Amino acid sequence: MMMMTLGLSSCEKFLDNAPMSEATSGNAYRTASDLDAALVGAYQTFYTEYFIWEYFVVSDVRSDNAYAGGDADEIYQYDDLDISPLNSRILGTWQQLYNGISRANLVIGKATEVQDPALDVNNRRENLIAEAKFLRALFYYELVRQFREVPIVTAYAKINPEDANIKKSPELEVYNFIVKDLEDATILPATYSSSSLSQSKATKGAVYALLAKVWAQRPDRDYNKVLQYAEEVERLGYDLHSSFDELFDGTHYDNKESILLIQFKEGTNQSNWGPQMLLPSSLSGDDWRKYITPSKDLVKAFDDAGDHIRKDASILFDDADWSDEFWKPCPTAGQIPFAYKFRHASGWMSGDHIYILRFDDILLLKAEALNALGRSAEALTPLNKVRDRVDLPALDIQNKDALLRAILNERRLEFAFEGDRWYSLQRTGMLKSTMDNLKEYRLICGGNSTLMNYGMNDNRVWLPIPQSELNRNPNLVQNPGY
């Protein structure tokens, strides 16, 4: 297993950890090894709370997939679609992603300045820049699909104080910046010296996969581009792993489906604490209420599809002594569902990996693109390939709108608790209708139930800009509705 060898404390030696709507400065770098260490620092963003935790909360809990669970008021705000600009989780997302961008900027800027002959061997300089640009593009992609308009920060050197406070860029301008970075990164190799490295570092496959996702998500989406890049990924030899359940059992991460994943090592300072927050007492060893509780609507979606394979791989029903306002309102013994794609708590130090890009995502994007381009009959092939793996019958839907709904439902069942649902509904224009039509009842022990009213509107598609960032930067403007 390839693990990042530089700890977070070491990474912070060359990075200002301040909130990043302002440009920061970098220290002096003189050798190729210095730049390698700086690139490791950019990859360390994968080990922050955003990718371990917020990545799932911000999509699954906000959508129809999950309830907040737990006892954190700020996560309840996500569930209720009533998020305050003062929510510290929003600030954490903003800071951690911009710090990752700052680290990538440092590599990109310094790689053009360092005069070490080792950088001119085997395209080392160009590949360092390309990897950093991929990471920068990925971090901006996370920001733009959550906040819509965000500042584009490219500087790493000290700048004049009057230039430090950077305005938000329009959504499309941010996406264009992302595409340019990814196009520059297509020079990356398809593989490295081991499959583990090839799954944990930026590769040509990861670049093409992210380009497909970006062209599907941007407001001027271009499904010809989505199809182009999905087929580029296919040509690189990725394929579905034979067993859906094995993707998450902790022993089959080395599979031909994985394009990019975050690797963790159990019992170390680069372990994954997220599973402890999700798993029942029988697997976690503690007895407090867990988070990201699967929704009744999601369980029904699995059951309606007859999809027991993905349901059993994604959701575990187990005992819980606490009350749950959606499943079990009284604090008596009984079972509730738990998110189950991360299965090993290991005392807050799990070795469970996190998939960022998988080939099944690209197959379903290909189906979505073909359908959007009027080639619905062809779209059935990648869709049914995904269904066949979990022993579901092939679909034969000719109506374009009905097929899109089927593809989105397939994505829901395939990527539950993987940070996808909100964005799939968002880009296809189905977010408001889905949340408005959601019938969820908050239960009261010994009392009446209350129908949830999510009050979904266009403003709630996006997160608010953190209030502390507005206070720091007078050129930032709050998103509408907050």
Automatic annotation (TrEMBL):
This is SusD family protein. It is found in: Cell outer membrane. GO terms for cellular component: cell outer membrane. InterPro entries: SusD-like_N, SusD_RagB_dom, TPR-like_helical_dom_sf. CDD domains: SusD. The lineage of its organism: Bacteria, Pseudomonadati, Bacteroidota, Sphingobacteriia, Sphingobacteriales. Keywords: Cell outer membrane, Membrane, Signal. The keyword Signal applies. The keyword Signal applies. Gene3D superfamilies: 1.25.40.390. Residues 345-482 form the RagB/SusD domain.
